[in-house]
Amino acid sequence: xxxxxxxxxxxxxxxxxxxxxxxxxxxxxxxxxxxxxxxxxxxxxxxxxxxxxxxxxxxxxxxxxxxxxxxxxxxxxxxxxxxxxxxxxxxxxxxxxxxxxxxxxxxxxxxxxxxxxxxxxxxxxxxxxxxxxxxxxxxxxxxxxxxxxxxxxxxxxxxxxxxxxxxxxxxxxxxxxxxxxxxxxxxxxxxxxxxxxxxxxxxxxxxxxxxxxxxxxxxxxxxxxxxxxxxxxxxxxxxxxxxxxxxxxxxxxxxxxxxxxxxxxxxxxxxxxxxxxxxxxxxxxxxxxxxxxxxxxxx
Length: 299
Prior knowledge:
Strand content: under 5%
CATH superfamily: Farnesyl Diphosphate Synthase
Largest sheet: 2 strands, antiparallel
Number of helices: 16
Oligomer: single chain
Shape: globular
CATH architecture: Orthogonal Bundle
Number of domains: 1
Number of strands: 2
CATH class: Mainly Alpha
Helix content: 55-70%
Order of helices and strands: HHHHEEHHHHHHHHHHHH
Mean pLDDT: 93
Radius of gyration: 18 Å
Structural class: mainly alpha
Strand order of the largest sheet: 1-2
């Protein structure tokens, strides 16, 4: 299922253009050209661009961004750089050892492990450079954006969640522990993207709290649907090999709950997320559309 053209498709085109514009250009004369090529290979490989789209939609829900378009683009590109860096590193042999990502060979397969590690490192640093250079955003807001993205990226976010994921291989994990793991591994950057949009729109604390309730629910729903698709989807639809979690003996919502119960749970989380948007009225319709897309997608 495709998301509505008014949300994912329109914003995605804007984000793709920003990524192309803000990335280091390819230059055969550069001694570091191979790392730049690997950065561009992974970041420009397509994908849903869900997280930066959420940032834009959240800013619109609270009244629109209080910054120039170029600076908002930098914030969105920074989010996608961090997301892509995490995918490059997650795919490495020391982590998930995946061969396909977005229908193409993973970065370490297309290049080599050392280049993939360096490309991921470079994208992570580039994200914070982009935010620092968004000097049209007020200094206190820019600092809050930096802190939000940093917290979501580190041991209290994605890194901590990935460490928990690796430690849980072959283990029986109860639902509360599984939810905590994915609240960090998957949900932290989704929550950060939504919060960053709220910050760009000048949201007050009550609005930020409502956005966080929305983002917490869709972050978990995203992972539940991912687990279902990994167990039931095809390589052609997913752009990567299905069944990887089961092959690695990883705990998932699918293995814990079964397909029907997991699908029902994803729908319940979607409903919870949409309810959290009530204070924003019609301005939050794109966010509601994205929540419904998350649990209806086939890839």
